[in-house]
Design brief:
alpha+beta; Aminopeptidase; seven-stranded mixed β-sheet; 4 helices; 7 strands; globular
């Protein structure tokens, strides 16, 4: 598996990953009726941000986007988001994508990386992020409407560099 910058021919493989995750409504705060055009606007970052794909034999297994968490006085802190195809989960794709974003953010001179909305029931993601140096710095109770669990918390997580 390798991670590389997103190229336009990747979109037909990236869009189904985003669509599936949005429709599941269990890890992302995306409208389940999100269109491909809306998804492009949400997912494809422009400079100074970056969008990447994890590929194996030219098949897209997952994708990540990264950039400044906020503009202006908050632009020294980065953020990132990750999506992995259902049949590629548990194979280290998410970890590789997260490690790539952390490396990129450090190389770009950011002071740290902040995740604004990690669903508390997404335990595998929380454990991965903690293993890579993130800490839950707060949880907004009931901020996420999970399809099975009802209203649950969203973690804010931070990794200082």
């Amino acid at each position: 598996m390798r991670i590389r910058k997103f190229d336009e021919p990747d979109w037909p493989e990236v869009w189904p990953i985003i669509r599936e995750i949005a429709r599941a409504q269990d890890t992302f705060c995306y409208d389940p009726d999100l269109t491909a055009e809306q998804a492009r606007g949400l997912w494809l970052e422009t400079s100074p941000g970056r969008t990447v794909v994890a590929v194996d034999d030219d098949r897209v297994l997952g994708t990540a986007k990264m950039g400044p968490n906020r503009a202006g006085p908050g632009a020294h802190v980065s953020t990132a988001s990750f999506m992995v195809a259902a049949d590629a989960r548990g194979r280290g794709v998410g970890a590789a994508l997260c490690e790539d974003t952390l490396r990129w953010a450090r190389d770009e001179g950011y002071a740290g990386m902040q995740f604004n909305a990690v669903v508390e029931s997404n335990r595998s993601a929380v454990k991965l992020y903690e293993r890579l140096g993130f800490t839950v710095i707060g949880t907004v109770p009931g901020a996420f409407q999970h399809p099975d669990l009802g209203r649950i918390g969203l973690h804010v997580m931070y990794c200082p560099f």
